[in-house]
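Before a colleague's protein record goes any further, I have to sign it off. I want your independent view on whether this chain really folds as the tokens say. The record follows directly below this note.
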Amino acid sequence: MALEKRLNPYFQLQENLSIELDNLGISEKIKLELIEEIPSRWEKLGDLVLLPESTFTSNEWKKILLISKNKIWAIFCSILHVSKIGRQKRIHSGPMRKSQVELLHGQDGIVLHKENSVFFEFDATKVMFSSGNVSERIRVSQFDCSDEIILDLYAGIGYYTLPLLVHTKVKLLHACEINPDSIAELKKNVIHNKVSDKCIIHEGDNLSTVPHLEIFGKVNRVMLGLLPSSEKSWRLAIQSLDSKGGMLHLHGNASAKKENEWAQSVIERLKEISNDSKREFKFELIHIEKVKSYAPKVNHLVLDIKVFN
């Protein structure tokens, strides 16, 4: 157990920060309180570690950081093998999905993160990246998309666009994005992953750009990866599909233990939209994937929906 503690980064942080607090002359009582605030979990993205939102926000820790922040962050960087430290904050809702990460140490928030043989470059202080969605990014990479035309309505920096391009045999992928910061990173990432020849990026509101595309009404698969809801683009997704139908991968939030009810309500709404759009498709729910918990008693889900005549 003693060896495990020595090898555990959390215990190493406790030990090394305790020594630094002793060097600063902090009383034993206050030191114990400060040690209690050291996070036991964090998110690592490339050479950046993101600490939880509540980390070191007490008045005592604020005082310590004013005195010795460079030494404190040097300890974190040494033990966690990174060069940058950030603090998580809530992500803006809406199509922009702007990051609210606060950079605590380092020159900038730019990282190059590798996951499932896919490279993601991004500035964590400007755009969001959820490690909790890794299972869905891996699942997407296992789809059979041979010779398909795919439309990603909320591409971001390439969360699902890149795994599809790197790992499946997609013919062509059209990636839509409205956030200028995300667009800049997406352009870099298709080059990093050597897939720019199979990806066309469309800048701006997808409701305005997609209807004018040559592939409108010829798409085989649509990605709807916006939270908390992508409903405003459901009609666009249906209209974008080939006349024979295709697949929708529709993300959304549902109350825990009411996932099936939510899924059925989505299917019914899609039927209404389809009939109203004179497409008269049929819809079959193939699979419900739980990605992660989004909030207390609310889950982030993905519905795999087959659309056909």
About this structure: The CA atoms of residues 172 and 198 lie 5 Å apart. The first strand starts at residue 43 and ends at 45. The domain at 2-88 is CATH 3.30.300.110 (GMP Synthetase; Chain A, domain 3). The two ends are 62 Å apart (CA to CA).
